[in-house]
Design brief:
This protein is an all-alpha fold. The chain is about 70% helix and about 0% strand. Helix 3 crosses helix 8. It is elongated, with a radius of gyration of 28 Å. The longest helix has about 45 residues. The two termini are about 55 Å apart. The chain has two domains: about 270 residues, no CATH class; about 110 residues. About 35% of the residues are buried. Strands 1-2 form a two-stranded antiparallel sheet.
Length: about 400
């Protein structure tokens, strides 16, 4: 495993952030911390976030809009500063993720392991820490699509020089401009740097958290829309919609959904800085929503029918065991009579609930199905205990 470590990724994702954390702790212990440092942190965090959304994701990975060379140059510089690898590599990995979602060829497959914890870690960051690294993970499709882009070719050629400049010189310069002292410049380097590292982890939430929870309104799978991540991800949190319509310049398609990136792209288009904005038709969106609702409704009905079969099986076995119990001693029969009656009563209640849900089926919530499944499991466990008691008595 150690031999397979991607050392540049280990440095960017683990070593350098830990160094920054240590230096920030020393800074806090030495100097007073106030609005200036907080402002630097928020500036660094949200500029990094917007760069990922506008540049890496919607411009280069999905061609959701077009822009001029000046804006693209700014995004090239800022994206190198996020330390998430060259744009060509980022777009290539993202293309593979959409093409092979949760399959073997998906770089951050969220179903890679049987263990959800291991799969979560892999999807979040593990996939970047092993393997050949950014420069060797560019697929042919990305090279055809973006390989002639001079700015992206220039970025990958001088990536580490640009990244170092954007992580050291620029943050220090920003700190000095607004603080006017060497300490302010040092604060700029530290707090913009630690903000960038924090945002880096939040970007990875899209691969991990957004593939383990969230609403699945538009497409069936693991991708989910998580509204409460909006203030951290500024629109990348509407991940289920994005998987359904990846080329749409909007991730939050509804007017009330917070998607700062779509608003910025829209404002850029009004200023002549963006054009050819790709937008999915409402008819197609509604059709996809209806199709997904129907798919999930069928899955839920299948689950209910499966539970119904399980309850019927338990009821039959329970009745057989009651017959067997007749040959047991009076003492055994008396001790097991009440538990069996309770088990039968529970099974009858569950059967009634299942019949009602299936008869009046209107796409019940997952909570109802899980609650019924939990009851079935509990009854099954109690019946198993009763079976063992009967077996013991028969052997005795």
């Amino acid at each position: 495993m150690i031999k397979n470590l991607n050392l540049p990724a280990v440095f960017s994702l683990i070593v350098y952030p830990l160094v920054l954390v240590s230096l920030v702790v020393l800074y806090v212990m030495t100097y007073s911390v106030g609005w200036f440092e907080a402002g630097l942190f928020l500036t660094g965090y949200y500029i990094s976030n917007i760069t990922v959304g506008l540049g890496f994701h919607r411009l280069w990975s999905h061609d959701a809009y077009k822009t001029n060379s000046f804006v693209e140059f700014i995004l090239v510089m800022l994206s190198a500063g996020t330390l998430q690898g060259p744009a060509l590599s980022w777009a290539s990995n993202h293309f593979d993720h959409h093409t092979h979602t949760d399959e073997e060829k998906d770089p951050h497959n969220s179903l890679k392991y049987k263990s959800r914890i291991k799969s979560f870690w892999w999807a979040h960051m593990g996939w970047m820490l092993v393997g050949e690294g950014s420069y060797k993970s560019i697929n042919r499709v990305t090279l055809v699509k973006l390989g002639r882009n001079k700015l992206l070719k220039w970025q990958i050629k001088y990536y580490w020089y640009i990244a170092a400049f954007m992580n050291v010189a620029v943050p220090a310069f920003v700190g000095y401009v607004f603080g006017g002292t060497a300490i302010a410049a040092y604060a700029g380097f530290l707090f913009i740097g630690i903000a960038r590292a924090a945002q880096q982890q939040v970007t990875f939430f899209v691969n991990s958290v957004c593939h383990f929870t969230g609403a699945q309104t538009y497409v069936k799978g693991t991708s989910g829309d998580i509204w409460w991540l909006a203030f951290l991800l500024l629109g990348e949190n509407w991940h289920n919609y994005h998987h359904a319509f990846p080329t749409d310049y909007r991730n939050g398609a509804q007017w009330y959904q917070m998607d700062v990136h779509k608003w910025l792209i829209y404002l850029m288009s009004k200023c002549g800085l963006a054009w050819d904005l790709k937008r999915t038709d409402k008819v197609r969106i509604e059709a996809k929503r209806a199709q997904t609702t129907k798919q999930y409704a069928k899955l839920k009905k299948d689950k209910l029918e499966s539970l119904q079969d399980k309850v019927s099986e338990l009821t039959n076995i329970c009745q057989e065991k009651i017959v067997e119990m007749e040959s047991s001693s009076v003492e055994i029969k008396e001790s097991l009579k009440k538990p069996f009656a309770n088990a039968q009563s529970s099974l009858n209640n569950i059967t009634s609930q299942l019949n009602q849900q299936i008869k009046n089926f209107e796409n019940p919530s997952e909570k109802i199905i899980l609650a019924i499944a939990k009851k079935v499991t509990q009854v099954e466990s109690s019946v198993q205990v009763l079976y063992q008691e009967i077996d013991k008595s028969s052997k005795a």
